[in-house]
Design goal:
- The chain is mostly helical and about 90 residues long.
- It has one domain: ACP-like (Non-ribosomal Peptide Synthetase Peptidyl Carrier Protein, Chain A, Orthogonal Bundle), CATH 1.10.1200.10.
- The protein has 4 helices and no strands.
- The protein is globular.
- InterPro entries: ACP-like_sf.
Amino acid sequence: MALQRAEVEAEILKFVASRCPNYSGLGRDTDLLEEELLDSLLLIDVIYQIEERYGIKLGGEHVGPVHFRTPGTIVDLVLSQAAPQA
């Protein structure tokens, strides 16, 4: 069963928001680095959540600003890793 972008996005936003309760403007394009929301603990929590929730194993090549800058880029990562590999 293919993951639906809207569902994954809602789950990622909810998860990140639960870890950043003092930040009210969270959206799919919020720059987590610029807003200083993404620290090492949140990064580990998000990776763990992705691996547990979606059954995806992320390697070192996936852990970096390009994939974790915004909730939208995190969703893109999840969808790209969950896609069937040909």
